[in-house]
Amino acid sequence: MTDHGADLVIRDGAIHTRVPGQAPQRALAVRGDRVMALSPDPHGLDHLVGERTTVRELTGATVLPAFDDTHTHLIYAALGAHDVPVHQAHDIPEFLDLIRQRAKATPEGEWIRTTTNWQELNLAERRMPTAAELDQATDRHPVLVKRGGHNDVVNNYALRMAGITEDTPVPPGGVIGRDADGRLDGRLIDNALGLVERLVPAPDRAQRIEGLRLASAQYAATGIGTVRDCAVSPEDYAVLLAARDAGALSTRVRALISALGMTGAAQVEDLLDVMEEWRDTSDAWLRVWGVKFGLDGGLEAGATEEPYACDHAFSGTLIWEPDALVDAVEAVVRRGWRVGTHAYGDRAVRTLLDVYEQVLARNAGLPAGTLVMEHGGLAGPEQRARAVELGIPVTIQQPLLHDTAEVEEGFWGPERVARLFPARGWIDLGAQVSAGSDFPVGQFGAMRSVHGMTTRQTVIGVKGPEHAISYDEAVTLHTVDAARLCGDQDLRGTLAPGRLADLTVWDRDPADCPSDTLRDLDPVHTIVGGRLVTR
Which residues form the Amidohydrolase domain (predicted)? Predict the structure, then answer.
């Protein structure tokens, strides 16, 4: 191959570059990890074909940039690769039997963990199992059942190991569950999770790397080339570094180092000291994006202005005192890092904007995009306008709404659920908004997210159709706008000479797919950095 040859040439497909105003191209050349050239003529780059060039004829296919999932949890997916697959259960007996089968193959006293991507309303009993029921599966192992990132259920063995009794103080911003008779039921929420999870030994390094290999390949298979993982511990990041070095990652990773569970700036300062060695931004595959905070709970504890529909004495949970969060966020930005903060309910959104406004006032000249709102689930018109005025980007997660709408209606009622993730309102205000899944609460997938944003379809029907956006807008949120959020706007998001060769190949044009087909449509190939990561 000559110095001017290409490693890969794609021709005769409709190549949608996402470059504003550019018509679909018909040929694309890649050299190394970069796009080398494009042409509107299917044979316009044939002069770059040499003896070592791979040529892919894509007649009838559509090419798009690879998608970003801007709020997800690859680490959870990787851990779940080896956990008990309770997401396959249809009822609690089947749920318990899966744990029971794992217990038979697990030495007594060793921890048993489950996958996290399940919902209790998918079980026939439409509730979570209890500690007593988990004891029926095994009382000779500590059992940790996770559901998403905010809820655990553990058996009595695990409660005893953690020293949790009916007299244990409830951590601020947490819940220790009890049944109707006041007895511990094994449920732990938000800041109470650490009471047990601190005791669970991490899988060995080789097992964790293999989990990342499997999980990142699963993301890539749906068209996702970059994940923004929003809860990465320092230990997790060390594993990500090892996985990168082993060539185990099929997606790029932008990591938010987790301050979840922290309640003061001093703890955050200690975390920032650990992060100092990770300031290198030259690695296009793996880098630290910033720090992740959580201001309120999730589906069952999001902080709302009005009481819950199911409990008129409850309006969710704020995990941080606002003044303390101002100090903590300020500690992060003064060290030159970005901040992403979970704010789900409208009271949390309002409080977060108050916090961010104070930080911006006290730290003039912060780079655009330093402070990000994660979710902004119930942000109303006034809050959205305020966020835009302050220059606060927001990430939204339509798959989360799709999968949990029935659960959320039980807590908040149908009117509030229909207002979640108002993409149309954000875009019309000119907000910097980007999209993701929030796996394991929502199911990841490039077109699964696009389908949800264009239809507002959920497991219980269409919710809030006035918040739907167009196909082109939805793709932009996952490509151009997502790359901007990650600080990669000069590298990714569009297909142009000099940009990273991150692209997806579809056997049909997703823009023309019927709605019911689009949701489950996957690409035939995903290419990241010029490397075919799916076959």
Answer: 56-533
Q: What is the pTM of this model?
A: 0.88
CA torsion angle 171 176 180 181 (round to 10): -80
pLDDT digits (tens, 9 = 90+) for 405-464: 998 999 999 999 999 999 999 999 999 999 999 999 999 999 999 999 999 999 999 999
Residue 172 is encoded by which pair of tokens?
Answer: 């601020």
How far apart are the C-alpha atoms of 26 and 147, rounded to whole Å? 45
Q: Three-state DSSP class for 352?
A: helix
| 97 three-class SS | helix
Q: C-alpha angle 495/530/519, rounded to 5°?
A: 65
pLDDT (tens digit per residue) in 294-335: 999 988 899 999 999 999 999 999 999 999 999 999 999 999
What tokens does 394 get?
């927001």
User: Hey, what amino acid is at 71?
Assistant: H
Query: Which residues, other chains included, contact 432 with Cβ-Cβ below 8 Å and sequence gap of 6+?
Result: 369, 391, 393, 394, 481, 484, 485
CA angle, 295 as apex, 291 and 297 as ends, to 5°? 120
Structure tokens at 248: 């185990």
Angle (nearest 5°) at CA 34 between 32 and 36: 95
Q: What is the pLDDT of residues 181-225, one digit of tens each?
A: 999 999 999 899 999 999 999 888 999 999 999 999 999 999 999
pLDDT-above-70 percentage for the chain: 99
Token pair, residue 457, equals 């379809």
Please name the helix (run of DSSP H) or strand (run of DSSP E) that holds residue 293, with its range, or none.
strand 286-294
What is d(CA 130, CA 57) in angstroms, rounded to the nearest whole number?
A: 55
Question: Which domains, and CATH codes, for the chain?
Answer: 8-60 (2.30.40.10), 84-197 (3.10.310.70), 203-526 (3.20.20.140)
Q: What is the CA radius of gyration of the chain?
A: 23
The Cα-based distances of 486 to 244, 256, 393 in angstroms read 19, 11, 11
Place of tokens 């954000």: 426
Q: Amino acid identity of 211?
A: G
